[in-house]
Amino acid sequence: xxEKKIEISFISAHLSEISDEEQQLVANAKSAFKTAxxxxxxxxxxxxxxxxxxxxxxxxxxxxxxxxxGLCAERVALFYAGAKYPKIKIKTIAVSVFSKSYQEIxxxxxxxxxxxxxxxxxxxxxxxxxxxxxxxSDKVLxxxxxxxxxxxxxxxxxxxxxxx
Length: 164
Ligand code: THU
Fold this sequence. Notes:
Layout: E1 11-14, H1 20-33, E2 44-51, E3 56-60, H2 73-84, E4 90-98, H3 112-125, E5 130-134, E6 139-143
Parallel strand pairs: 4-5
Antiparallel strand pairs: 1-6, 2-3, 2-4, 5-6
C-alpha cells in the first residue's frame, strides 16, 4: 500500500496582471454573460473560447423551466466551437460570472460536467487548454491545463473495445 499525492498548480491574479490577450478573452466572457438566459437562478455566466485560428466563440448559460434541460455557459461555448470548427484546437477558455441575487461572488469553478467536456477536448487535441476564471472583483484564477481541474478524468482510452 502506498499513499500518492497529486499536486495542482494555478495562478491567482488581478485582471490587470494578466496578458492583453487573456484580458481581451475575459472581456469577451463578460460580454457573453449579458446574453445569459437565467430567469431561474439569476446567476449569469459567460464563456469565451479562443481557438488557434484566432476566432473567439462565446456562450452563456441557457436555463429551462425543466431545470436539467438547461446548459452551462462553458458547454454552450465549447460545443458551438466544436461544431463550427471541429478540426481547430482550443487554446484558452475564459469564464466570467455576474449576479445581482448573490453577494460577493468569488471565482467560481466550472461544474464537473463542464470539466469533463473541457477535459475531453484537451485529450482529443493532445494539447493543453488554459482555463481562466474571472469574478466581479476582477480576481482571476488561471489553470494551465484542464487536467489540473479534473484529475482521474474518465477518458476514452480507458474503454477497450472487444475486437470485432
Ligand atoms: N453555471 C454555468 O453556466 N457555469 C458554471 O460554471 C456554473 C454554473 C450556470 C448553470 C445555471 O444556469 C446557473 O449557472 C446556476 O447554477
